[in-house]
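Researcher: Re-running this chain for the archive, since the previous output was lost when a drive failed. Same request as before.
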Amino acid sequence: MAIYEYITGKLADLTPAAAVVEQGGIGYQVQISLQTYAAIRGQEQVVLMIEEIIREDSHTLFGFHAREEREMFRLLVSVNGIGPNTARMMLSSLTTADIRRAIQTDNVNVLKSVKGVGIKTAQRVIIDLRDKLAKTEETTGIFPMTGNTSRDEALSALVMLGFGRNESVKALDQILKDAPATGAEELVKLALKKL
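Model: Regenerated structure tokens:
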């Protein structure tokens, strides 16, 4: 179970593999995927969902822009043979939705296209996670609820990320006009492209 839920603060430094988030005068180095890098690049203030991996010789923080990405990371590291760095590599090479789709459709080729993932590991990921993924989606709402709640959640997330409330409302309303049933996480992703 994670000790830390999230970190919010000033983005002091950013590379495609790590972010330094300054909070209370301390800079926390957080390992990130390319998905998260693309989502937070250019931001001054960030909120990252955290997963702490404790090993004998290290305590490492992994950060995720979206809860869905962190949930997928947790599922991947639960598979025998997939460590945190391989899971991060998978989340850097494929989107969370691509990984989920590959698992659900038994697409070994998509998973083994990731550097460091062989055919046996890809098969193990599919076998181990197919049922877990279905269960997780049902119980934790990996697919967000739709309606006004989604709009409110997305607006809150955008404001926490440092976007102005008015411009965020405008972007969300434009998206919802065309696709009223869009979930909160998808709304945030689409709004980030407009802002």
